[in-house]
Amino acid sequence: MQYFALLLSPSDAPEERTDPEAAAREMKAYTDFHTREAASIRAGDALTPAAEGVRITGGPDAPVVTDGPFPESAEIAGGFYVFEADDLDAALALARQVPHASKGAVELWPMVMEFQPTSKLTGDHWLALLIEPADNAHEPGSDEWNAAAAKHGELASAVGDHFVGGAALHPPSTATTVRVRGDDVLLTDGPFVEGAEVANGFYLLSAADRDEAVKLASMIPATTVELRRLMGIAGL
Fold first, then answer.
1. In Å, how far from its chain's centre is CA 181?
2. Exposed/middle/buried for 198, CB within 10 Å: 0-12, 13-18, 19+?
3. Does 132 reside within a domain?
4. What is the domain-level CATH number for residue 7?
5. Total count of domains within the chain
6. What pLDDT sits at residue 192?
């Protein structure tokens, strides 16, 4: 089974000012994690700052584009992974090894379908995170879910080679948040922050520039789409 892991920090967390040695140590920690768990990591990368991101509301018929940062957000995503794991316990074992878990949180969601990226991820790719009111998070297989899935199937056909991959996520009740504080591993059921909106799925899009990425993301049938560019440093 596959799991989507979103690396999160509180939006009011102070911006880190690391020296080159500290940055090198952190990069090594990620490289070691990638080497150690290569067989279980299907994709992942860091995201460029939220200030460079975009939120799109209103749906494909009347999209409204808002530039980042997003001060109304309780948490900010800084990166993501797609893990392959036999079960939730195995996925949690991966999530708690992510270096960010020791200072922020890793929100882990089971995915509804398999993620099969069409190319290696680079800085020319964008993560489009689909966000919905909690009441819109329908159970997979329900009539409402199937109707929405059909719209997403039409989108994948329309964007063609710009579609690198993506998946729907199971409802928020299935999410688990992982934090590591010293020797303690803290697990919380449900999304990282309780609120009116929850992650519902994601796309990875290929775009020549920001304008093209916004145009593509505006076609996604979702209440809100948060669009963030990949840094292209993970090599996954």
1. 23
2. buried
3. yes
4. 3.30.70.1060
5. 1
6. 47
